[in-house]
Amino acid sequence: MSIDKITLTGLKVFGYHGVLKKERKKGQEFIVDVSVSYKMNKVVDTDNIKYAVNYSQIAMIVKEVIEGEPKNLIEKVADDIANKIIEKFDVKIVRVTLHKPNAPLDVIFDDVSVSVERMK
Fold first, then answer.
1. Quick check: is 100 catalytic?
2. Catalytic residue among 21, 26, 63, 100
3. Taking the domains of the chain in order of start, what are their residue ranges?
4. Beta strand pairing status for 113-119 and 28-38?
5. pTM of this prediction?
6. The 28-38 sheet, strands edge to edge
7. Whole-angstrom distance, CA of residue 89 vs CA of residue 104
8. Mean pLDDT by 10 residues, the chain (120 residues)
């Protein structure tokens, strides 16, 4: 049995998530990496898109969640993305890393991120 993976890296979506009032009012760009693991045997054998996990739809789920109802914590946002993907597609594992490169910190930094993994 094989488990294969599709990965989307660096999806950039503007949203209003955060604990601080200024984050909710001004908003900021979030960057999301998603990977889904599933058995691609039927996809490979048939070369038919109807058996594939549609990565365009995965990107749209990410966009809808980030642009949707504001959440306090990026952990909740990442969890929402992972759960919506695993509900929609016949995948075994979903990994989501949500980056918040403009997080309100008082030190110089490159990135803040949270990663979640959900299994079916």
1. yes
2. 100
3. 4-119
4. unpaired
5. 0.94
6. 4-15, 28-38, 93-99, 113-119
7. 35
8. 89 98 96 96 92 95 98 98 96 97 95 96
